[in-house]
Write a structure and sequence with these properties.
By secondary structure, this protein is mainly alpha-helical. It has one domain. 76% of the residues lie in helices and 0% in strands. It has 6 helices and no strands. α1 packs across α3. The mean pLDDT is 94.
Length: 163
């Protein structure tokens, strides 16, 4: 049996939980924004979070990890959204500042993982890359800003292995 890095399972469970919170956060923000286009983009980000969580859920099952209840995680994500101003420009600015750091976190998780766990973890990392690409396009006013998110969902929904 492969010896796991001591923090691998704890981190895996935490990141899964954060994806569930993120899903609820984005769906709640979509409800709070007045602009229908911005709301749709938040829902799309929520869908990407949903898929990223689903991609790593089999690893939680594999290791018999029990995340906090979905109701608790959803309530937390919604509460976090309610604490933010429903201001598109401020949301973009904050996400553009924080999301790049998540790449390092996800890559560190990959570095701890056994080789057989890498495909779903790379799917997790890829969702953040897509979100950052969306944010950069959106900040530039690119009309095709959601393309990286849509491509992520198309790619991984049909082929869960990012390789």
């Amino acid at each position: 049996m492969t010896t796991l890095h001591p923090k691998y399972l704890e981190t895996l469970k935490l990141y899964y939980e954060e994806e569930i919170e993120g899903e609820a956060y984005f769906f709640r923000m979509s409800e709070r924004l007045d602009d229908p286009g911005h709301s749709a983009k938040m829902r799309l980000l929520g869908e990407v979070e949903t898929y990223a969580a689903a991609a790593v859920k089999p690893l939680l099952d594999k290791y018999k990890l029990t995340p906090r209840p979905a109701t608790e995680l959803t309530a937390s994500g919604r509460s976090q959204a309610d604490a933010k101003p429903a201001d598109w420009v401020l949301l973009l600015e904050e996400m553009r500042g924080t999301f790049p750091g998540y790449i390092d976190d996800f890559e560190a998780l990959e570095a701890m993982a056994p080789a057989e766990d890498l495909a779903p973890l790379r799917t997790l990392t890829a969702h953040e890359i897509a979100a950052i690409a969306f944010l950069e396009r959106e900040a530039k006013g690119d009309q095709s800003s959601t393309q990286p998110l849509v491509q992520y969902l198309k790619r991984f929904a049909t082929n869960p292995s990012p390789g």
